[in-house]
Amino acid sequence: FYGCPSIGLSLADHGADADFEAAELYAERIVRAVLERPVGESLCLNVNIPVGRPEEIRGVRVCRQNLGYWREEFYRREDPQGREYFWLTGDFVDREPEAPDTDERALAEGYVSVVPVQVDLTDYARMDSLRATLGLE
Fold first, then answer.
1. Model's pTM, two decimal places?
2. For the chain, does the N or the C end have fewer beta carbons within 10 angstroms?
């Protein structure tokens, strides 16, 4: 947001005994590369590391974000002191399972996925047709 480069790193293993060795190795490589050879201001990367030992990871892919979504479920629970809290869970719905260039495909094939992310969600391709629809041209 303010010209500060950022990198979000995630391991695709949510288990209590998750092995972070590959994540540590690839996180260091990616962060070091970006710091040593910057690729522009306001860089924001979403990096996901697949489950597996370092020697099982097939490499790194720069790809796009999958167009899927999370189908979320919330459960009301109580902690041991009787206080209410909500537990979030859910399943990812892959809307394009055959697409070869997505982060989901990279992870499924054993690659670290690196997605450059931006904040501007403007649909520039539709601006002219929207102007015409609204009679502004």
1. 0.81
2. N
42 in helix, strand or coil? Answer: coil
The model's pLDDT over 63-81, given as tens digits with 9 standing for 90+, comes to 999 999 989 999 999 999 9
Q: Is residue 83 part of a domain?
A: no
Tell me whether residue 1 is in a domain. no
Q: Is residue 90 part of a domain?
A: no
The 10s digit of each residue's pLDDT in 23-54 is 999 999 999 999 999 887 788 999 999 999 99
Number of domains in the chain: 1
Going by C-alpha positions, the residue among 50, 48, 57, 46 that lies closest to residue 18 is: 50
Q: Alpha-carbon distance 50 to 26, whole Å?
A: 11
